[in-house]
Amino acid sequence: MSASVSSSISALIDGLFEQYGPLIWWKGSTEEVMIGAILTQQTRWENVEVALSRLRQAGICSIRGIFAAPMEEIEALIRPTGFFRVKARRLQGLAAHVIREFGGVEGMRTVPTEDLRESLLSVKGVGEETADSILCYGLGRAVFVIDAYTERICWCAGIDAGRRELKGLFESVLPETADACRQSHAHFVEYAKGYCGKKRCDECWIRNFDG
DNA sequence: TTCCCGTTCT
DNA sequence: AGAACAGGAA
Questions:
Q1: Whole-number Å distance between alpha carbons of A72 and A46
Q2: Where are the domains of chain A?
Q3: Which protein residue's Cα is closest to nucleotide C9 at C1'?
Q4: Rounded to whole angstroms, how far apart are CA atoms A84 and A91?
Q5: For strand C, is any atom closer than 7 Å to the CB of A147?
Q6: How confident is the model over A12-48, as pLDDT tens digits?
Q7: Strand C and chain A: which residues 23-62 have CB closer than 7 Å?
């Protein structure tokens, strides 16, 4: 946890902001963000939007809608996202948990972030990345989401740290607001999709980065 | 490590 | 036809 590591993180954040500027990802309701967070696991976002609109048309794109719907209906509607049998069960498990523990999404808003995170992690199908996405994008908490892209970029930048440590580093460097976390995370994903995914390592300013 | 699985791009 | 995709469980 040296100061140089923190400054490296800051330099990455600043460099990506210079490259992409203001970039806001998804203004959705809390409930749709929660559903989308499950559906997007190992799946392209474009396919998630298809599934979300199908759920909306069926009138079940909500916690209570998912909770009440037959498993087969959910499976059919979310089919475009892949892993539809597993994800349908994860969605109902999450909906049931929210209703049972908090009486609905509104009941979550007063719960401290760490408590809420632990609660979400107890749901089958909600791992750390999904839980943090829900907290940041769905509930407006100042939580930074570490995903495979972020981890890879940091590794290429010479920052030798695991996901746990990276999360703490980003949150200590960034302003303590959900918008700051959202925007920076979006930058990392955007960069990785543009360069890492297309293997443009020769054009990557982050590789062998030492700031 | 392997499985879950449809869609899109190569 | 093959790989890759906003992961997580067993």
A1: 23
A2: 3-25+144-203, 30-138
A3: A125
A4: 10
A5: yes
A6: 999 999 999 998 777 789 999 999 999 999 999 999 9
A7: 25-26, 36-37, 40-45
Give strand B nucleotides closer than 7 A to any protein Cβ.
4-8
The answer to whether the beta carbon of residue A84 comes closer than 7 angstroms to any atom of strand B is yes
- To which residue do tokens 């210079």 refer? A18
3-state secondary structure A90-140: HHHHHHHHHHHHHCCHHHHCCCCHHHHHHHHHCCCCCCHHHHHHHHHHHCC
Average pLDDT, chain A: 94
Largest Cα separation within chain A, whole Å, is 54
Residue A2 has a pLDDT of: 57
The backbone torsions φ and ψ at residue A103, rounded to the nearest 5 degrees and listed phi first, read 70, 15
Find tokens 């490296």 and name the residue. Answer: A8
Question: Is A152 in contact with A134 (CB distance < 8 Å)?
Answer: no
Domain A30-138 CATH assignment equals 3.40.50.2000: no
Burial of A63 (0-12, 13-18, 19+ CB in 10 A): buried
Distance from C-alpha of A138 to C-alpha of A26, rounded to nearest angstrom: 9
Nucleotide minimizing C1' to CA distance for residue A41: C7
Q: Are A124 and A96 in contact (CB under 8 A)?
A: no
- Sites in chain A below the pLDDT cut of 50: 1
